[in-house]
Fold this protein.
Amino acid sequence: MTENARPAVPRHVAIIMDGNGRWATARHLPRVAGHSRGIEAVRAVIEQAGRRGVEYLTLFAFSSENWKRPQEEVSTLMRLFVSALQKEVGKLSENGVRMRVVGNLSAFEPELQALIGDAERQTMHNTQLQLTVCASYGGRWDIVQALRSLIGSVPDPRALARGLTEQQLAEHLGLSFAPDPDLLIRTGGEQRISNFLLWQCAYSELYFTDTLWPDFDPAAFDAALAWFATRERRFGRTSAQVSRPAAEELRA
Ligand code: IPE
Ligand code: IPE
Ligand code: MG
């Protein structure tokens, strides 16, 4: 087997950053104040992930369904996204972070699309941490766009359909450059996936915490990593099967 049953640090951590609105409402503040504080939490968690040796960090910032929110909240979120890109990309790049944005980007204003393109180009040679922001992203959208892209890439779609493999489809998904998430964290108390990485989280360890996203600090991130380190990852096999190869390796 290739997977390590008890990896100490997850290579890929994905986070559903939920609870900004409730954080603000509890303080009698407008929801946007929660989103602003949420950006500070993002900054701290990126740094902590880098310190802990996580290779891939994927953050769910705005879902396909979030377009249905009141127009005022959507436009505020877009403004925050623009200003965060303008302010943070230089520092991310200095810290060796490569940034990508994955989602249906055609739904964004041209200014935001251009900033995203700039950020991706500016950081493309960095290797310390692969940061992916999922924006205007939905797991179902991702699978459909992958299929469209795959079908469009072959001369004979009927022949493709007859021999289609999981690997072929996965190569066209938005996160094809990354291994599947080892650990999926959701803050804010809900225990659901909300159309995040439906394909890629088939075997992720799921960690739910009541902590609201703006309160999710480096210590909270470490707590999630500590919980992850206690999990035995079996990938369908038995416990004996996944622990034996390690014992055999020690004897060798
Ligand atoms: C997550 O926080 C941020 C986005 C979805 C953009 P919410 O805005 O969903 O906060 P709650 O769930 O209403 O508290
Ligand atoms: C999920 O949060 C999406 C993001 C964190 C970007 P939501 O707040 O949109 O999730 P639901 O609608 O409560 O499931
Ligand atoms: Mg929410």
Remarks:
- The radius of gyration is 19 Å.
- Residues 12-251 form a domain with the Undecaprenyl pyrophosphate synthetase fold (CATH 3.40.1180.10).
- The longest helix spans residues 71-94.
- DSSP finds nine helices and six strands in the chain.
